[in-house]
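[[Encoded backbone]]
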Amino acid sequence: MSTSNDRFDVVIVGGRCSGSPLATFLRRAGLSVCVLDRAEFPSDTLSSHFFQVSGLSIMKKLGVLERVHATGAPSMTRVYMKFDDVDLSGDVRLRPDDPSTPIVCVRRVSLDVLLVDNARSAGVELRTGSRVTGLIHRNGRVAGVKVENGSGRRSSIHADLVVGADGRLSSVGRMVGARRYHVAPNERFNSWAYFRNVPLESPPTCYFHRRGDDFVIAGPADDGLFIVIVAPSLGSLDAYRADSERWFKNIVAGCEPVAQLLANAERASKFRGLTRFEGFFREASGPGWVLTGDAGHFKDPGPGQGISDALRQAEALSQAIVRGMGSAPRLDRELRRWWRWRDRDAFQHYWFAFDVGRAGPISPVRLEIMRHLARDDETRKDFIDLFIHRAFPSDVFSSFRVSRALFKLMSDQQMRRGALADAVAIVREELRRRFSTWWPSYDGKEAVDEAHTDHQPSPAQ
């Protein structure tokens, strides 16, 4: 590991889809930047691997969009989206300045290498195989990190700012004592695998299907692969682990178009997944430090917004750092301002993702709202906009639409009592969530994390 420079403007812990893009933007602005990551690249990490046009716009600014296309990942321009009997399928709405690629799925073994290499080409110093063991403090501020490389050699890196971009189990977050708030445990687990010999549809399509309590997400990925994700209720975890193959096939069978695509396919990977986790926000900044990406905020992965969120946060954070660099008080103010932006940007989508990932039947009032949206091409696109972070849930599930859905359901005597109780629960929950933005409940516990891997080899291995 190079020790030629132990002093940087910014040191970033974590080099994946938040850390490396942030480093690239900062280096282009003239700052000296060091990125540390305990992994060597290429390496995999738990991820649904989908990202949308808001993230792809950042890829374009980073100069890696063409390399993303070169991985062979098709541009998914259409979404197959069904909730029970409600069909909300449609084309993704693009803006005039958008790249022509609405949704892409690229495995992290491919994507993270592109981002790391791009940062290195920009002049960022990358030190992989490096584990941060502690923080350096000076005059009440974080002023650097203590590092140990793979051979056990220790060193210190001093910096005006330490960035934690090291995932939902962030070591930097733990070391600075950043508290979590709006904590929400998962009610489903996610399990996925990649398949080969899956015919490519025209246009390429992203699948999002909820029937009863079964949940399937799927789409074409890079290198000729096709990803299929199932998200059963957490209560079925033990049974799923006992026979992943059978459970996986049974859930996929409920989504007819995906089942047909897999008819002659060959599974090319093990089953992997995230089984126990919690959504949260973390305190995002303090004297000499800031957290970004999953280190500062993690939501239910159902809508697949994590990668795009990390990229968008990286761009906005880079601007805040550049504005504040050179004065510690000014830097702290800019980071707090960015923190407020992050929470405003993420809050509604956080709870939307939680609602998408809830176990049990879909809320009858929300289902009636979706039924109304499904009647028109443009309102279907409004709903699809939720999944690409182009609309806020309050725009789609507005008070007016809740009232209209309740009025419609109340006309059905069999639905009346359940609809009224559901509407009251929705309003109460919305008020509680809004109240929590002013008086959040903090949680001092460590993040929950449990992964699932089926070690039975696939036919392709």
